[in-house]
């Protein structure tokens, strides 16, 4: 059996656990090698009965240090976008497809985000599946390609289908399929090359979030 096949969080996920028990168990996850360099596991946070789950790629440097999702610059931008779209942060559950920060060091101490591999995303899937099973959201917003492909398959392209209402997976036998909206990760807005481009990217992000808000209002 190859290394990629052996990597999985499944042995660390307790059966029948609630969110608090899952969070505690995730702190000891050794399902892939990312735990070795990360400061800590960054588990999801938010309303445990939220109708909407927002899923990003992985924690960043600030999240890794503080142990909470979306607390850095991208998280602050997301908070503002959520408010404008009518989805205040305390009404949603926020998490990531991968629970440990993957990075490379530059200039000695600076830690720069590095995209997780498909193997690492698959290895971490049992945690996201467990969160879905406990929170039981009706809707999900995928922030970026890694999150979208974790839910919708590797052939999915955010650029082709952003802002659309999509049929997602059925996370439990007694649950309806998720309604999914895919959009860009807020960090990509911050990386836009100039103020005009950043404002345009931000407005498109708010519009995509608004699709989810409108769908929820009419459901």
Describe it for me?
Keywords: 4Fe-4S, DNA damage, DNA repair, Hydrolase, Iron, Iron-sulfur, Metal-binding. This is Type-4 uracil-DNA glycosylase. One of its GO terms (biological process) is DNA repair. The protein is an alpha/beta fold and 219 residues long. The protein is built from 9 helices and 8 strands. The chain has helices spanning 3-6, 19-26, 61-66, 73-85, 118-135, 145-152, 158-161, 186-190, 195-217, and strands at 45-46, 52-56, 93-96, 103-106, 110-113, 139-143, 166-167, 179-183. The strands form 2 sheets. The protein has a 6-stranded mixed sheet with strand order 1-3-2-6-8-7, sandwiched between helices. Strands 4-5 form a two-stranded antiparallel ribbon. β4 and β5 (110-113) form a beta hairpin. The mean pLDDT is 95.
Provide mean pLDDT, rounded. Answer: 95
CATH topology: Uracil-DNA Glycosylase, subunit E
Helix- and strand-based class?
A: alpha/beta
Give the N-terminus to C-terminus distance in angstroms. Answer: 46 Å
H-E order: HHEEHHEEEHEHHEEHH
| CA-based gyration radius | 17 Å
At the first level of CATH, the class is Alpha Beta
